């Protein structure tokens, strides 16, 4: 996708081959800043601090983190240490464990002298595959959206959090079909929910402004009204983990939207690549839910009248705060899962129809 007209990914190896560069998502939407990560610890901090975020991008970043660690030291202890450090950064998005398992499988059998170069190659492969998978999700979602839009070509959508290209390497998951529909000339408009407390909806609005997709930012609490009023033909969101039965963990607030969509009889779609599906996880009840720092609720970030970016404490320190970062939407509320292999029902059979190789896995 493009930033100020220039084609950009969210992560790439630095020219000197000793670092990776990322778009610092904590600076957006007020500033566009590229950050250089020079070693394992900086990568782990960037993931934990959500400078990079979104399930697929977390996985790819972790893969590059392993490459950086092995560039410094490539023995077994370094490989195991890097994987353990990165695995502990964020618990819910299974793409992280998926990417680390893939790095482990590719690198552990190699002699240490060959590992660093192989790690850079494998991380780049994971990144490129993510781009292609997201592109395909866009095409499958587009077919669905064409049906929904019908002859009028009018498409009123709602999304939550940011499952756009910033959350992946490129294209996005939930937003890939939106971009594909817009590029195909459909009359698209998207309700973008703010997504308290981290406000990832602002990232979605920033992406849409870059691409020219018509949208309006709404408070999370406005979603029910808009759905009940018929202001929206479908809701589409991403996922951090899809359990084997089709239950979906995604950003906190997703479940409320699914309930409201179900009550209003509006289809609710989830878009995600294979790396987000956890066939080892029987149902949503087994998905670990990340609890994040209370300051994410207590402190708001923004620009003042002079455009200076800063933070304000909006909640006194002695107010008790809970901050679960994800929720689980039961499969029964989901109209379909959009993957790189096509669209299926949110169910074990649906998932296995697209990924038959997992039947005995
Ligand atoms: O906490 P975040 O911002 O990493 O959470 C992101 C989400 O919940 C996204 O919807 C999900 O990762 C899908 S991203 C393509």
- Total of domains: 2
What is the name of the CATH superfamily of the largest domain? Translation initiation factor eif-2b, domain 2
Terminal residue distance: 35 Å
Shape: globular
Mean pLDDT: 97
Strands, total number: 18
Biggest sheet strand order reads: 8-7-6-9-12-17-18
The number of helical runs is: 11
Helix content: 25-40%
Beta-strand percent range: 15-25%
Radius of gyration: 20 Å
Low-pLDDT runs of 5+ residues are none
Which distinct ligands sit in these coordinates? 5-S-methyl-1-O-phosphono-5-thio-D-ribulose
Structural class: alpha/beta
Oligomeric category? single chain
Provide a short characterization of the protein structure.
The protein has helices spanning 40-48, 55-72, 76-87, 94-107, 112-149, 175-183, 201-211, 223-228, 254-263, 295-298, 348-354, and strands at residues 2-3, 6-7, 11-13, 20-23, 34-37, 154-159, 187-193, 215-218, 234-237, 241-243, 248-251, 268-271, 277-278, 299-303, 309-313, 326-329, 336-339, 342-344. 38% of the residues lie in helices and 19% in strands. The chain contains 11 helices and 18 strands.
Structure report:
The protein has eleven helices and 18 strands. It is globular. It has helices spanning 40-48, 55-72, 76-87, 94-107, 112-149, 175-183, 201-211, 223-228, 254-263, 295-298, 348-354, and strands at 2-3, 6-7, 11-13, 20-23, 34-37, 154-159, 187-193, 215-218, 234-237, 241-243, 248-251, 268-271, 277-278, 299-303, 309-313, 326-329, 336-339, 342-344. The mean pLDDT is 97. Helices cover 38% and strands 19% of the residues. Strands 8-7-6-9-12-17-18 form a seven-stranded mixed beta sheet, with helices on both faces. The chain starts with a strand and ends in a 7-residue tail after the last helix. It folds into two domains: 2-130, Up-down Bundle (Four Helix Bundle (Hemerythrin (Met), subunit A)); 142-358, Translation initiation factor eif-2b, domain 2 (Rossmann fold, 3-Layer(aba) Sandwich), CATH 3.40.50.10470. The chain is of the alpha/beta class and 361 residues long. It binds 5-S-methyl-1-O-phosphono-5-thio-D-ribulose (MRU). 5-S-methyl-1-O-phosphono-5-thio-D-ribulose (MRU) binds at residues 53-56, 93, 161, 163, 167-168, 172-173, 200, 237-240, 250-251, 325. 5-S-methyl-1-O-phosphono-5-thio-D-ribulose is lined by residues 53-56, 93, 161, 163, 167-168, 172-173, 200, 237-240, 250-251, 325.
């Amino acid at each position: 996708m493009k930033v100020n007209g220039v084609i950009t990914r969210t992560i790439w190896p630095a020219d000197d081959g000793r670092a990776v560069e990322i778009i610092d998502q904590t600076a957006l939407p007020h500033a566009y800043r590229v950050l250089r990560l020079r070693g394992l610890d900086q990568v782990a901090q960037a993931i934990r601090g959500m400078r990079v975020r979104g399930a697929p991008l977390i996985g790819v970043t972790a893969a590059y983190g392993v490459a950086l660690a092995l560039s410094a030291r490539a023995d077994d202890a370094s490989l195991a240490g890097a994987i353990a450090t990165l695995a502990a950064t964020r618990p819910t998005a299974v793409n992280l464990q998926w990417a680390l398992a893939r790095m482990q499988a590719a690198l552990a059998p190699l002699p240490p002298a060959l590992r660093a170069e192989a790690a850079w190659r494998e991380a780049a492969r994971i990144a490129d595959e993510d781009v292609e998978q997201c592109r395909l999700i866009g095409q499958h979602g587009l077919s669905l959206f064409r049906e929904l839009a019908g002859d009028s070509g009018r498409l009123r959508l709602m999304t939550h959090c940011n499952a756009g290209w910033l959350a992946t390497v490129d294209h996005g998951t939930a937003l890939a079909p939106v971009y594909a529909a817009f590029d195909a000339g459909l009359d698209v408009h998207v309700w973008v929910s703010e997504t308290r407390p981290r406000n990832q909806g602002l990232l979605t609005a920033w992406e849409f402004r870059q691409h020219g997709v018509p949208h309006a930012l709404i408070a999370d609490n406005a979603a029910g009204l808009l759905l009940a009023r018929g202001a929206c033909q479908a809701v589409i969101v991403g996922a951090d983990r899809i359990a084997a039965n089709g239950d979906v963990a995604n950003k906190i607030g997703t479940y409320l939207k699914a309930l409201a969509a179900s009550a209003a009889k509006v289809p609710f779609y989830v878009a995600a690549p294979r790396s987000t599906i956890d066939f080892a996880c029987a149902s949503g009840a087994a998905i670990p839910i990340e609890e994040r720092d209370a300051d994410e609720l207590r402190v708001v970030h923004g620009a003042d009248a002079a455009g200076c970016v800063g933070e304000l404490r909006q909640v006194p320190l002695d107010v008790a705060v809970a901050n679960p970062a994800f929720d689980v939407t039961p499969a029964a509320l989901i109209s379909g899962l959009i993957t790189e292999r096509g669209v299926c029902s949110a169910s074990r059979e649906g998932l296995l129809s697209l990924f038959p190789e997992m039947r005995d896995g």
